[in-house]
Specification:
The protein is of the alpha+beta class and about 130 residues long. Helix content is about 30%, strand content about 45%. The protein contains three helices and five strands; from the N terminus they run ααβαββββ. It is globular. InterPro entries: DUF4440 (IPR027843), NTF2-like_dom_sf (IPR032710). Pfam families: DUF4440. It comes from Hymenobacter aquaticus.
Length: about 130
């Protein structure tokens, strides 16, 4: 188990860096691998997505819709033994670097076999409804 909030923050930042790099490469499988085996995605306007194949397909679909880059910024992390809760903001960009969306997210992280993984992932936009 990780013992300090600083190291948990560093490990989550590293996982977020991997998420961003995987997204930029178009590697939805690499993104899905960052989640626990029992992870749940909670996207807006959709039913929960609860398995690795579904998570991979979701992120592949986002890439197919023109999202080419994700920027994640942690605002706060609360550590609770083998669980951590991250509050942050995101920005989605297209291939030209134009902003497609921005918003906030909440991720429940679980430490499994010495690695922090996304376990429950929910987000919503800051942009007004069209």
């Amino acid at each position: 188990m990780t013992t300090t909030a600083t190291s948990v923050r560093d490990e989550i930042r590293h996982a977020n860096d991997t998420f961003e790099a995987s997204f930029a490469r178009g590697d939805a499988a690499g993104i899905a691998n960052l989640y626990t085996s029992t992870a749940v995605l909670l996207p807006t306007g959709m039913e929960p997505i609860q398995d690795a194949a579904g998570i991979q397909a979701f992120w592949q679909g986002a890439m197919g819709m023109g999202v080419k880059q994700v920027k994640l910024k942690t605002r706060d992390i609360e550590e609770l033994e083998e669980t951590a809760i991250e509050l942050g903001t995101y920005t989605l960009l297209d291939a030209a670097g134009q902003q497609l969306d921005q918003g906030k997210y909440l991720v429940v992280w679980k430490e499994q076999q010495g690695q922090w993984r996304l376990h429950q992932d929910i987000w919503n936009t800051n942009l007004p409804a069209q």
